[in-house]
Amino acid sequence: MTTVSVHAKGILPIALSMVMALTTGCASAAKSVGYADNPKAKAFVDKMVKQGFDRAELNTLMANAKRQDGILKKISTPAERRLTWGSYRKIFLGKKRIQIGVEFWNKHADTLNAASKAYGVAPEVIVAIIGVETFYGRIVGKDRVLDALATLAFDYPPRSKFFTGQLEHLLFLAKEEQLDSTVLKGSYAGAMGYGQFIPSSYRHYAVDFDKDGKRDILNNPVDAIGSVANYFKQHGWKMGDPVTASATVAKSADSELFNKGLKPVKTLAQWKQLGVSPTSADLPDQAIATAMKMQIDGREEHWLGLHNFYVITRYNHSRLYAMAVHQLSQEIIAARNKASGKS
Question: Which residues, 6+ apart, have CB-to-CB distance to 196 below 8 Å?
Protein backbone atom coordinates (compact mmCIF):
# COMPACT_ATOMS: atom_id res chain seq x y z
CA MET A 1 0.00 0.00 0.00
CA THR A 2 1.29 3.47 -0.84
CA THR A 3 1.47 5.69 2.22
CA VAL A 4 2.03 9.40 2.56
CA SER A 5 4.40 10.58 5.24
CA VAL A 6 2.65 12.69 7.87
CA HIS A 7 5.75 13.76 9.78
CA ALA A 8 6.21 17.51 10.02
CA LYS A 9 7.12 20.12 12.61
CA GLY A 10 4.50 21.62 14.92
CA ILE A 11 0.78 20.96 15.18
CA LEU A 12 -0.21 23.15 12.29
CA PRO A 13 2.10 23.20 9.24
CA ILE A 14 -0.60 24.54 6.91
CA ALA A 15 0.34 26.15 3.61
CA LEU A 16 0.12 29.94 3.53
CA SER A 17 -2.42 29.78 0.73
CA MET A 18 -4.74 27.71 2.92
CA VAL A 19 -4.49 30.18 5.78
CA MET A 20 -5.27 33.05 3.40
CA ALA A 21 -8.29 31.21 2.04
CA LEU A 22 -9.62 30.69 5.55
CA THR A 23 -9.11 34.29 6.64
CA THR A 24 -10.13 36.26 3.56
CA GLY A 25 -13.62 34.81 3.28
CA CYS A 26 -13.25 33.70 -0.32
CA ALA A 27 -16.17 31.93 -1.95
CA SER A 28 -14.57 28.49 -1.89
CA ALA A 29 -13.92 28.71 1.85
CA ALA A 30 -17.47 29.90 2.51
CA LYS A 31 -18.87 26.72 1.05
CA SER A 32 -17.15 24.62 3.71
CA VAL A 33 -17.46 26.28 7.11
CA GLY A 34 -15.28 24.94 9.89
CA TYR A 35 -15.54 25.12 13.67
CA ALA A 36 -14.00 28.59 14.18
CA ASP A 37 -17.28 30.08 15.50
CA ASN A 38 -18.55 26.99 17.34
CA PRO A 39 -19.00 27.76 21.08
CA LYS A 40 -17.65 24.36 22.13
CA ALA A 41 -14.65 24.78 19.86
CA LYS A 42 -13.97 28.22 21.32
CA ALA A 43 -14.06 26.77 24.82
CA PHE A 44 -11.69 24.05 23.67
CA VAL A 45 -9.29 26.66 22.28
CA ASP A 46 -9.38 28.55 25.59
CA LYS A 47 -8.51 25.38 27.46
CA MET A 48 -5.64 24.47 25.15
CA VAL A 49 -4.19 28.00 25.29
CA LYS A 50 -3.90 27.53 29.06
CA GLN A 51 -1.84 24.42 28.33
CA GLY A 52 0.67 26.32 26.23
CA PHE A 53 -0.77 26.22 22.70
CA ASP A 54 -0.87 29.27 20.45
CA ARG A 55 -4.33 30.79 20.12
CA ALA A 56 -3.89 31.94 16.53
CA GLU A 57 -2.77 28.48 15.43
CA LEU A 58 -5.64 26.86 17.29
CA ASN A 59 -8.20 29.22 15.75
CA THR A 60 -6.87 28.40 12.30
CA LEU A 61 -6.97 24.70 13.13
CA MET A 62 -10.61 24.91 14.26
CA ALA A 63 -11.47 26.77 11.05
CA ASN A 64 -9.77 24.00 9.12
CA ALA A 65 -11.67 21.23 10.94
CA LYS A 66 -14.90 20.29 9.15
CA ARG A 67 -18.07 18.63 10.38
CA GLN A 68 -18.62 15.29 8.64
CA ASP A 69 -22.19 14.01 8.72
CA GLY A 70 -21.02 10.63 7.44
CA ILE A 71 -18.99 10.19 10.60
CA LEU A 72 -22.03 10.89 12.76
CA LYS A 73 -23.96 8.25 10.85
CA LYS A 74 -21.18 5.68 11.16
CA ILE A 75 -20.75 6.05 14.90
CA SER A 76 -24.49 5.70 15.42
CA THR A 77 -24.64 2.32 13.65
CA PRO A 78 -21.40 0.37 14.36
CA ALA A 79 -21.13 -3.16 13.02
CA GLU A 80 -20.79 -4.54 16.53
CA ARG A 81 -24.35 -3.42 17.28
CA ARG A 82 -25.90 -4.23 13.89
CA LEU A 83 -24.59 -7.70 13.09
CA THR A 84 -25.02 -11.17 14.49
CA TRP A 85 -21.93 -13.17 15.34
CA GLY A 86 -22.40 -15.19 12.15
CA SER A 87 -22.40 -12.10 9.94
CA TYR A 88 -19.56 -10.47 11.84
CA ARG A 89 -17.44 -13.61 11.68
CA LYS A 90 -17.72 -13.80 7.90
CA ILE A 91 -16.18 -10.34 7.58
CA PHE A 92 -13.04 -11.10 9.57
CA LEU A 93 -12.39 -14.81 9.12
CA GLY A 94 -12.31 -15.13 5.35
CA LYS A 95 -9.63 -17.19 3.62
CA LYS A 96 -7.90 -14.11 2.22
CA ARG A 97 -7.44 -12.51 5.62
CA ILE A 98 -6.11 -15.76 7.06
CA GLN A 99 -3.70 -16.19 4.15
CA ILE A 100 -2.37 -12.65 4.40
CA GLY A 101 -2.12 -13.10 8.15
CA VAL A 102 0.22 -16.05 7.60
CA GLU A 103 2.26 -13.98 5.13
CA PHE A 104 2.45 -11.07 7.58
CA TRP A 105 3.61 -13.41 10.36
CA ASN A 106 6.25 -15.02 8.16
CA LYS A 107 7.52 -11.66 6.94
CA HIS A 108 7.75 -10.22 10.45
CA ALA A 109 8.53 -13.39 12.37
CA ASP A 110 11.66 -12.02 14.05
CA THR A 111 9.85 -8.87 15.16
CA LEU A 112 6.86 -10.83 16.44
CA ASN A 113 9.10 -13.21 18.37
CA ALA A 114 10.99 -10.29 19.89
CA ALA A 115 7.77 -8.48 20.84
CA SER A 116 6.28 -11.65 22.31
CA LYS A 117 9.40 -12.18 24.41
CA ALA A 118 9.65 -8.53 25.50
CA TYR A 119 6.01 -8.08 26.47
CA GLY A 120 4.77 -11.58 27.24
CA VAL A 121 2.03 -11.51 24.60
CA ALA A 122 1.19 -14.32 22.17
CA PRO A 123 2.36 -13.47 18.63
CA GLU A 124 -0.86 -14.80 17.12
CA VAL A 125 -2.99 -12.26 18.96
CA ILE A 126 -0.74 -9.42 17.75
CA VAL A 127 -1.11 -10.68 14.17
CA ALA A 128 -4.87 -11.10 14.56
CA ILE A 129 -5.38 -7.60 15.97
CA ILE A 130 -3.59 -6.01 13.02
CA GLY A 131 -5.56 -8.29 10.70
CA VAL A 132 -8.94 -7.35 12.12
CA GLU A 133 -8.12 -3.67 12.50
CA THR A 134 -6.58 -2.86 9.11
CA PHE A 135 -6.21 -6.03 7.03
CA TYR A 136 -2.46 -5.80 7.70
CA GLY A 137 -2.16 -2.14 6.83
CA ARG A 138 -4.34 -2.30 3.73
CA ILE A 139 -7.39 -0.55 5.21
CA VAL A 140 -6.33 2.16 7.64
CA GLY A 141 -9.22 4.57 7.22
CA LYS A 142 -9.92 7.48 4.86
CA ASP A 143 -11.37 10.03 7.27
CA ARG A 144 -9.23 12.95 8.30
CA VAL A 145 -8.56 12.47 12.02
CA LEU A 146 -8.97 16.19 12.74
CA ASP A 147 -12.43 16.22 11.15
CA ALA A 148 -13.48 13.01 12.87
CA LEU A 149 -12.51 14.14 16.34
CA ALA A 150 -13.85 17.67 15.94
CA THR A 151 -17.17 16.37 14.59
CA LEU A 152 -17.57 13.92 17.46
CA ALA A 153 -16.32 16.37 20.07
CA PHE A 154 -18.55 19.27 19.08
CA ASP A 155 -21.53 17.65 17.32
CA TYR A 156 -22.05 14.28 19.01
CA PRO A 157 -23.34 14.93 22.56
CA PRO A 158 -23.38 11.28 23.75
CA ARG A 159 -19.57 11.05 23.50
CA SER A 160 -18.60 14.72 23.41
CA LYS A 161 -16.47 14.59 26.56
CA PHE A 162 -14.53 11.54 25.38
CA PHE A 163 -13.81 12.86 21.90
CA THR A 164 -12.95 16.32 23.16
CA GLY A 165 -10.33 14.54 25.23
CA GLN A 166 -9.11 12.71 22.14
CA LEU A 167 -8.86 15.98 20.22
CA GLU A 168 -6.74 17.32 23.06
CA HIS A 169 -4.54 14.22 22.90
CA LEU A 170 -4.23 14.70 19.12
CA LEU A 171 -2.70 18.15 19.60
CA PHE A 172 -0.22 16.91 22.18
CA LEU A 173 0.56 13.88 20.01
CA ALA A 174 1.26 16.11 17.01
CA LYS A 175 3.75 18.11 19.05
CA GLU A 176 5.43 15.10 20.62
CA GLU A 177 5.76 13.04 17.46
CA GLN A 178 6.20 15.89 14.98
CA LEU A 179 3.02 15.04 13.07
CA ASP A 180 0.83 17.24 10.90
CA SER A 181 -2.60 17.03 12.50
CA THR A 182 -4.27 18.39 9.36
CA VAL A 183 -3.34 15.46 7.11
CA LEU A 184 -3.53 12.44 9.40
CA LYS A 185 -6.05 9.89 8.11
CA GLY A 186 -7.80 7.17 10.08
CA SER A 187 -11.13 5.69 11.09
CA TYR A 188 -14.36 7.58 11.68
CA ALA A 189 -13.48 7.52 15.41
CA GLY A 190 -10.02 8.98 14.90
CA ALA A 191 -8.03 5.74 15.17
CA MET A 192 -4.76 5.55 13.23
CA GLY A 193 -2.14 3.22 11.84
CA TYR A 194 -1.70 -0.54 11.57
CA GLY A 195 -3.26 -1.18 14.97
CA GLN A 196 -5.76 1.71 14.85
CA PHE A 197 -4.74 3.57 17.99
CA ILE A 198 -6.80 6.56 19.02
CA PRO A 199 -4.62 9.55 20.04
CA SER A 200 -4.60 8.73 23.76
CA SER A 201 -3.57 5.13 23.06
CA TYR A 202 -0.88 6.33 20.65
CA ARG A 203 0.55 8.57 23.38
CA HIS A 204 0.31 5.99 26.17
CA TYR A 205 1.11 2.67 24.49
CA ALA A 206 3.00 3.23 21.21
CA VAL A 207 6.68 2.25 21.38
CA ASP A 208 9.76 2.82 19.26
CA PHE A 209 10.35 -0.90 18.83
CA ASP A 210 12.98 -0.61 16.11
CA LYS A 211 14.89 2.07 18.09
CA ASP A 212 15.09 4.55 15.19
CA GLY A 213 14.17 7.51 17.37
CA LYS A 214 10.44 7.82 16.67
CA ARG A 215 7.26 5.95 17.46
CA ASP A 216 5.72 5.41 14.04
CA ILE A 217 2.68 3.13 14.07
CA LEU A 218 1.36 4.77 10.92
CA ASN A 219 3.88 3.50 8.39
CA ASN A 220 6.21 1.22 10.36
CA PRO A 221 4.93 -2.34 11.01
CA VAL A 222 7.81 -2.99 13.45
CA ASP A 223 6.72 -0.19 15.77
CA ALA A 224 3.09 -1.24 15.26
CA ILE A 225 3.81 -4.82 16.34
CA GLY A 226 5.67 -3.68 19.43
CA SER A 227 2.97 -1.16 20.26
CA VAL A 228 0.12 -3.69 20.04
CA ALA A 229 2.14 -6.05 22.24
CA ASN A 230 2.74 -3.27 24.77
CA TYR A 231 -0.97 -2.42 24.77
CA PHE A 232 -1.84 -5.99 25.67
CA LYS A 233 0.84 -6.20 28.32
CA GLN A 234 -0.40 -3.01 29.97
CA HIS A 235 -3.94 -4.37 29.99
CA GLY A 236 -2.97 -7.61 31.70
CA TRP A 237 -2.51 -10.30 29.05
CA LYS A 238 -1.46 -13.60 30.64
CA MET A 239 0.84 -15.56 28.36
CA GLY A 240 -0.25 -19.16 27.91
CA ASP A 241 -3.69 -18.74 29.44
CA PRO A 242 -6.79 -19.68 27.41
CA VAL A 243 -9.07 -17.06 25.92
CA THR A 244 -12.44 -18.79 25.55
CA ALA A 245 -14.10 -22.13 26.19
CA SER A 246 -17.17 -23.47 24.46
CA ALA A 247 -19.94 -24.28 26.91
CA THR A 248 -22.81 -26.66 27.39
CA VAL A 249 -25.94 -25.24 28.94
CA ALA A 250 -28.42 -27.12 31.11
CA LYS A 251 -32.12 -26.68 30.36
CA SER A 252 -32.53 -25.23 33.83
CA ALA A 253 -29.99 -22.42 33.17
CA ASP A 254 -31.40 -18.91 33.23
CA SER A 255 -31.09 -17.31 29.79
CA GLU A 256 -30.66 -13.92 31.47
CA LEU A 257 -27.20 -14.98 32.66
CA PHE A 258 -25.72 -14.51 29.19
CA ASN A 259 -24.23 -11.37 27.64
CA LYS A 260 -24.57 -9.41 30.88
CA GLY A 261 -21.12 -7.86 30.71
CA LEU A 262 -17.64 -8.26 29.28
CA LYS A 263 -15.75 -8.45 32.57
CA PRO A 264 -15.58 -11.96 34.07
CA VAL A 265 -16.97 -11.98 37.60
CA LYS A 266 -17.97 -15.59 38.31
CA THR A 267 -15.69 -18.60 38.69
CA LEU A 268 -16.15 -21.65 36.50
CA ALA A 269 -17.29 -23.51 39.61
CA GLN A 270 -20.06 -20.96 40.05
CA TRP A 271 -21.00 -21.18 36.38
CA LYS A 272 -21.26 -24.96 36.64
CA GLN A 273 -23.66 -24.57 39.56
CA LEU A 274 -25.76 -22.29 37.38
CA GLY A 275 -25.88 -24.86 34.58
CA VAL A 276 -23.18 -23.42 32.31
CA SER A 277 -20.20 -25.76 31.98
CA PRO A 278 -17.04 -25.55 29.85
CA THR A 279 -16.67 -28.45 27.43
CA SER A 280 -12.96 -28.62 28.30
CA ALA A 281 -12.02 -30.45 31.48
CA ASP A 282 -8.61 -28.77 31.61
CA LEU A 283 -9.76 -25.45 33.01
CA PRO A 284 -9.44 -24.82 36.77
CA ASP A 285 -12.65 -24.21 38.70
CA GLN A 286 -11.24 -20.99 40.18
CA ALA A 287 -10.80 -19.35 36.77
CA ILE A 288 -13.23 -16.49 36.28
CA ALA A 289 -15.35 -16.09 33.16
CA THR A 290 -18.29 -14.33 31.57
CA ALA A 291 -21.04 -16.28 29.80
CA MET A 292 -21.96 -15.48 26.21
CA LYS A 293 -24.46 -16.64 23.63
CA MET A 294 -24.05 -15.76 20.00
CA GLN A 295 -26.23 -16.20 16.92
CA ILE A 296 -24.70 -17.97 13.95
CA ASP A 297 -26.41 -19.67 11.01
CA GLY A 298 -29.80 -19.71 12.74
CA ARG A 299 -28.53 -21.31 15.94
CA GLU A 300 -26.97 -20.27 19.22
CA GLU A 301 -23.39 -20.84 20.32
CA HIS A 302 -22.56 -20.69 24.02
CA TRP A 303 -19.15 -19.58 25.23
CA LEU A 304 -17.27 -18.68 28.35
CA GLY A 305 -14.94 -15.71 28.00
CA LEU A 306 -11.93 -15.92 30.30
CA HIS A 307 -9.46 -13.29 31.52
CA ASN A 308 -7.57 -12.98 28.21
CA PHE A 309 -10.86 -12.59 26.38
CA TYR A 310 -11.61 -9.60 28.57
CA VAL A 311 -8.16 -8.19 27.78
CA ILE A 312 -8.97 -8.30 24.06
CA THR A 313 -12.17 -6.34 24.74
CA ARG A 314 -10.03 -3.53 26.19
CA TYR A 315 -8.99 -2.92 22.58
CA ASN A 316 -12.60 -2.76 21.40
CA HIS A 317 -15.42 -3.13 23.90
CA SER A 318 -17.30 -5.81 21.98
CA ARG A 319 -17.64 -9.55 22.48
CA LEU A 320 -18.03 -9.98 18.71
CA TYR A 321 -14.75 -8.17 18.13
CA ALA A 322 -12.87 -10.15 20.77
CA MET A 323 -14.20 -13.45 19.47
CA ALA A 324 -13.21 -12.53 15.92
CA VAL A 325 -9.68 -11.64 17.02
CA HIS A 326 -9.30 -14.87 18.97
CA GLN A 327 -10.70 -17.14 16.28
CA LEU A 328 -8.68 -15.41 13.56
CA SER A 329 -5.54 -15.98 15.64
CA GLN A 330 -6.32 -19.67 15.87
CA GLU A 331 -7.10 -19.96 12.16
CA ILE A 332 -3.80 -18.27 11.30
CA ILE A 333 -1.87 -20.64 13.57
CA ALA A 334 -3.56 -23.63 11.93
CA ALA A 335 -2.92 -22.34 8.40
CA ARG A 336 0.70 -21.53 9.21
CA ASN A 337 1.30 -24.95 10.72
CA LYS A 338 -0.32 -26.64 7.74
CA ALA A 339 1.87 -24.72 5.34
CA SER A 340 4.99 -25.74 7.25
CA GLY A 341 3.97 -29.39 7.47
CA LYS A 342 3.16 -29.31 11.20
CA SER A 343 0.12 -31.11 12.49
Answer: 133, 134, 140, 141, 186, 187
